[in-house]
Amino acid sequence: MGLSTLAIPYVEDYVQICDYSFDGGILAMRNLLELEDRPTAVVCTSDMAAFGAIHEIEKWGLQVPGDISVVGFDNTYYAQVFKPGLTTINQNIHSIGIKTIEHLIKMIEQSEYSPPVVTEPSSLIVRQSTAEIKK
InterPro entries per the record (predicted)? Predict the structure, then answer.
């Protein structure tokens, strides 16, 4: 489901390129907080980046999820013990690893092998870092 499906406008300034680290999350969030029209929610590329984003939000005197909701990606152990508990996207890393190895072996054994696009289901783990959408 995309932004347009939910009638949410795409704002290019909201897209921040950063690495998956705590510091990357801090820098990306700082850029967003400096905008005149701040987002009310962010989705980060990793739980570590989300922890950095939350750190920066709180440094600015704002609250998660009261002022800004934050979602991570990875469902790391720390997502459940961090305060507030981090809403995150869970993926089956084990299955992804097995499929990756299978395709690597085929690529080694068969020089003409072209690996297919493989999708793996994921799920949203809702915790305390997100609030209901404000209307």
Answer: LacI/GalR-like_sensor, Peripla_BP_I
Residue ranges per domain, the chain? 4-125
CA distances from 50 to 1, 89, 98, 124 (A): 21, 12, 27, 15
Closest by CA to 69, choosing from 129, 5, 132, is 129
Q: Which two tokens stand for residue 88?
A: 């995150």
pLDDT tens per residue, range 22-48: 999 999 999 999 999 999 999 999 999
Contact 120, 93 (CB under 8 A): no
Element (H, E) at 125: strand 122-125
Confirm whether pTM is higher than 0.70: yes
Q: State the CATH class of domain 4-125.
A: alpha beta
